[in-house]
């Protein structure tokens, strides 16, 4: 009976349009099992995860954390869970999506499948390669045992959904005192050569003591077909490690992204995550920092510039577990047309985490009457000797500043753009790759729709 | 060149200017003095076209053209310049880039092509030397972290770059030490010609030692209550504004 059931489920997989996305995912799990090593210990983690997802399902607006972001309409899309064919891309056609001004390591996926043609991986002193290798090859087993799914949530439903299907993504291991010669770009392309596609990349990044890495991540849809990416990244920064992570979210109007990033930091480490949200249909960023050590710094910066009916939801969590640490959050948002934004910043300071300095700032400008932003700081402080500050503002552009620019002959529209540019720009100061900074500068100017009369 | 006729202006239904008449011809320097709250800065803003103020009566015209429905940027294109009492800080935009934008937008407004880069650089070099502005200063973010003196010097630098027909200097002397005052005044004097005019708005006579006015007007309660030549400024310095207020009350 059980077996018949399984066969039936498999037959229905990807065919039954009436099946909900949740049902479809659960039944696809069996098809997925045919293609992975079910005897590997990782598979026990996957099995546990799918059970959790089956019990919880997709989050709904009834949950506080999802109050302003609905996944309902996405669940009505008939997504392919696995790509049916392998698609190729020419470098010249996608060059603009890379930071091609500089040399970089590249881990590139097309429709969730690794593209060796577009990639440049390495094992020269550091490992910059594929999750599929790390999850299957014996030489990585020890590391996978120690790190895989150790900081990612085991009960957040979308994270467990990703864990259940974890098979491919980027694997980066930087041993003690090492730093790769160049930054790493992780790029996911969706070609949409077949219908709507759901992707679930899984990244694992381990930076050992006193090691350093710079990573740029991008999801890019090349199709008008719907794409839904549910990504999980685990980052482990050991003592005195430095990690710079840049997320470029400038996708097209039919691409949605749920990004779940979990960071485990140890003493004296420094982890900076910059999130540039300039486009996409629906983007949810769950950025979670766990500070397991002293004298460390966590920085979260974001620039959001949206128009049309785009939606971005930034959820940050910083858990200060030990004393003498800092966290800095600075998110700027510019919302036009019918776009909507959410910022929810949670800071937890444990009782023993004395001398914590936690700063959080979220400033927004609404340039359309129809745009909305919901912003909420959430502070849970159990220690008494801490400095925590938070502030959020929502406003229009300052009319005195507008008048100043206009009186210099700059038309209203250009003056607006210049002020928005100035507003967003200071977030870029901490970007440590100059070419990336220039690139983002240009993107901001382009996004604001004007030529500012000078090269940025 | 600039003609103000029976100008009344209000903000949020509160009348601030109550019938100002003033004619400024090419080559002239006018000083407008007056106690705090007399409407000096409002007058400057209304001439430059700030929309917050509503003109309820009268008119401002430049070269015979009524400016009523002319946007601030278009007024700038036509040759009106206002040096702000409190210049706005614009982080992330350098003085040079700001100037390039302002110059080229003004040229666009007049139907001209962008200024060629080498010409722009030459102009920037020339005008920054005039105001003794350091090269490093030009790459700093506009007004961000500038001292009071630097802000004002930068205002006059912008004036030099834009070469307006009518320049209004709103309290340009406030926050300046004597050296900065001299540099700023020297800059303004060098820019003066028989074809342009300057309106100096100030509370004190100090600046007028350096920028010598042809006419001095005293503003009180939204009206020009007394006009004269430069001796009037000295008289005000000596006696204060009380006697003007009393005279006006009679």
From TrEMBL, chain A:
GO terms for biological process: iron-sulfur cluster assembly. Residues 28-186 form the SUF system FeS cluster assembly SufBD N-terminal domain. This is Iron-sulfur cluster assembly protein SufD. NCBIfam families: sufD (TIGR01981). It comes from Croceitalea dokdonensis DOKDO 023. InterPro entries: Fe-S_cluster_assembly_SufBD (IPR055346), SUF_FeS_clus_asmbl_SufBD_core (IPR000825), SUF_FeS_clus_asmbl_SufBD_sf (IPR037284), SUF_FeS_clus_asmbl_SufD (IPR011542), SufBD_N (IPR045595). Residues 193-423 form the SUF system FeS cluster assembly SufBD core domain. SUPFAM superfamilies: Stabilizer of iron transporter SufD. Belongs to the iron-sulfur cluster assembly SufBD family. PANTHER family: PROTEIN ABCI7, CHLOROPLASTIC.
From TrEMBL, chain B:
SMART domains: AAA. CDD domains: ABC_FeS_Assembly. GO terms for molecular function: ATP binding; ATP hydrolysis activity. It comes from the Bacteria. SUPFAM superfamilies: P-loop containing nucleoside triphosphate hydrolases (SSF52540). InterPro entries: AAA+_ATPase (IPR003593), ABC_transporter-like_ATP-bd (IPR003439), FeS-cluster_ATPase_SufC (IPR010230), P-loop_NTPase (IPR027417). Coiled coil: none annotated. Residues 2-246 form the ABC transporter domain. The keyword ATP-binding applies. Keywords: ATP-binding, Nucleotide-binding. Belongs to the ABC transporter superfamily. Ycf16 family. PANTHER family: ABC TRANSPORTER I FAMILY MEMBER 6, CHLOROPLASTIC. This is ATP-dependent transporter SufC.
């Amino acid at each position: 009976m059980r077996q018949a059931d399984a066969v039936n489920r498999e037959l229905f997989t990807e065919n039954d349009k009436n099946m909900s996305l949740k049902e479809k995912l659960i039944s696809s799990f069996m098809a997925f099992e045919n293609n992975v090593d079910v005897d590997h210990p990782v598979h026990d983690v996957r099995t546990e995860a799918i059970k959790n997802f089956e019990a919880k399902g997709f989050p709904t607006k009834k949950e506080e954390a999802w109050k302003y972001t609905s996944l309902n309409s996405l669940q009505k899309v008939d997504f392919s869970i696995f790509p049916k064919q392998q698609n190729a891309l020419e470098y010249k056609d996608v060059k603009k999506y890379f930071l091609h001004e500089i040399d970089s390591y590249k881990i590139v996926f097309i429709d969730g499948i690794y593209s060796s043609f577009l990639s440049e991986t390495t094992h020269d002193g550091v490992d910059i390669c594929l999750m599929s290798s790390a999850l299957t090859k014996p030489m990585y087993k020890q590391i996978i045992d120690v790190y895989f799914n150790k900081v990612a949530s085991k009960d957040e439903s979308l994270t467990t959904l990703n864990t259940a299907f974890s098979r491919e993504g980027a694997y980066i291991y930087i041993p003690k005192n090492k730093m790769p010669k160049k930054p790493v770009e992780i790029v996911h392309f969706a070609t949409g050569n077949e219908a709507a596609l759901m992707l679930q990349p899984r990244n694992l990044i381990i930076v050992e003591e006193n090691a350093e890495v710079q990573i740029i991540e991008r999801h890019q849809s090349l199709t008008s077909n719907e794409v839904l990416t549910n990504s999980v990244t685990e980052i482990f920064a050991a003592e005195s490690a430095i990690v710079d992570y840049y997320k470029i979210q400038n996708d097209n109007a039919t691409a949605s992204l749920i990004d779940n990033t979990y960071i485990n930091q140890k003493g004296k480490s420094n982890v900076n995550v910059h999130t540039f949200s300039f486009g996409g249909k629906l983007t949810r960023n769950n950025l979670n920092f766990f500070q397991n050590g002293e004298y460390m710094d966590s920085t979260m910066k974001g620039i959001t510039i949206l128009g049309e009916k785009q939606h971005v939801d930034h959820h940050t969590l910083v858990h200060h577990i030990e004393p003498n640490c800092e966290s800095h959050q600075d998110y700027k948002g510019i919302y036009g047309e019918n776009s909507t934004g959410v910022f929810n910043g949670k800071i937890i300071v444990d009782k023993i985490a004395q001398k914590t300095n936690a700063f959080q700032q979220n400033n927004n400008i609404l340039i359309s009457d129809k745009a909305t932003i919901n912003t909420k700081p959430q502070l849970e402080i159990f220690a008494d000797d801490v400095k925590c500050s938070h502030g959020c503002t929502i406003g229009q552009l300052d009319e005195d500043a507008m008048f100043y620019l206009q009186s210099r002959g700059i038309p209203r529209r250009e003056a607006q753009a210049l002020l928005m540019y100035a507003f967003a720009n200071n977030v870029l100061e901490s970007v440590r790759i100059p070419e990336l900074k220039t690139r983002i500068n240009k993107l901001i100017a382009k996004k604001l729709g004007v030529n500012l009369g000078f090269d940025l | 060149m600039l003609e103000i006729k029976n100008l009344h202006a209000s903000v949020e239904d509160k009348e601030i200017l109550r019938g100002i008449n003033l004619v400024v011809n090419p080559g002239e320097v006018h000083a407008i003095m007056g106690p705090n709250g007399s409407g000096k800065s409002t007058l400057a803003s209304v001439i430059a076209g700030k929309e917050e103020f509503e003109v309820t009566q009268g008119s401002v015209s430049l070269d015979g053209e009524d400016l009523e429905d002319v946007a601030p940027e278009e007024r700038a294109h036509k040759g009106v310049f206002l040096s702000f009492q409190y210049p706005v800080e614009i982080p992330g935009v350098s003085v040079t880039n700001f100037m390039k934008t302002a110059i080229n937008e003004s040229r666009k407004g007049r139907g001209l092509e962008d200024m060629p880069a080498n010409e722009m650089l030459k102009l920037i070099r020339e005008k920054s030397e005039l105001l003794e502005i350091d090269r490093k200063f030009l790459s700093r973010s506009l007004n961000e972290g500038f001292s009071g003196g630097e802000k004002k010097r930068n205002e006059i630098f912008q004036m030099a770059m834009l070469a307006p027909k009518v320049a209004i200097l709103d309290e340009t002397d406030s926050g300046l030490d004597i050296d900065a005052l001299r540099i700023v005044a020297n800059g303004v004097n060098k820019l003066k010609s028989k074809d342009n005019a300057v309106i100096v708005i100030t509370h004190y006579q100090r600046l007028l030692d350096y920028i010598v006015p042809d006419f001095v007007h005293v503003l009180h309660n939204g009206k020009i209550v007394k006009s004269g030549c430069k001796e009037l400024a000295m008289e005000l310095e000596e006696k204060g504004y009380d006697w003007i207020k009393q005279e006006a009350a009679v």
